[in-house]
Design goal:
The protein is α/β, with parallel strands linked by helices. It is built from 11 helices and 7 strands. The termini are far apart.
Length: about 270
Amino acid sequence: MIVESFMWMTGRFPSVRRTLWRGFYGALASYSRRAEHWTFMNYGYVDGDPSAHPRLSPEDWQERYPIYLYHRIASRVDLSNRDVLEVGSGRGGGASYVKRYLRARRVLGVDIAASAVALCRRVHRVEGLEFRQGDAEALPVSDSSFDAVLNVESAHCYPSIDCFLAEVRRVLRPGGHFLYADIHDAAEAHDFGRAAGASGLIEVEQDDISAGVAAALQLDSDRRRRWGAENAPRFVQGPVNKFVGVAGTRVPSALARGEARYLAYVLRKPG
């Protein structure tokens, strides 16, 4: 009931959506600041072709399914020796992956929660990787300063997707790419595509990867349940299980029934 009420409020009242999500993620980062092994917050992905998965070092193996999602989204274009901005960088694992494995020249992670940024600066000490607090609808970076913008499971928190896409276009260099992934209510799944079409960005690729996300949640369910048991007070473990997508909870069930769709886009700035 707690999760459903929170989601209803964020969906029903866009004017307070930013404040609600900032408070939620800020509290999460502050409470779980000692869980430094938990560096990803996405639902994960598994490809039907195992050869498509990146080869990971032993220290990254535990979080392989969330990493596979980042690889699926971020590797659609060559990011080697490129400047990459991640908007909604959360606990920083995705930005770190892009810098370490995809060999970006520079990666900047921007997140609205100050506590999340502080955690990332402490945990992810990688040359060429930095984190900064900022709003997705008023990004603290210069015009035409990045070759790619990455956004994974974050845009549903924003009051205005149109304002966000305008910022994406502003900060991208001509010919730069926007790499996007998020879960959508099935009835509203085309709304992002319409907003993207009105943004002036060119659609390069669009894909429904719901099956791969649902499969990853099933495979990763025990780890997610264990994390909740180890890091959350007992009285909120039910809501935490729903938030992280333990098998049988709201998100995996909605994907299985076709009530939700997980979409991935690649857009390009003209030039």
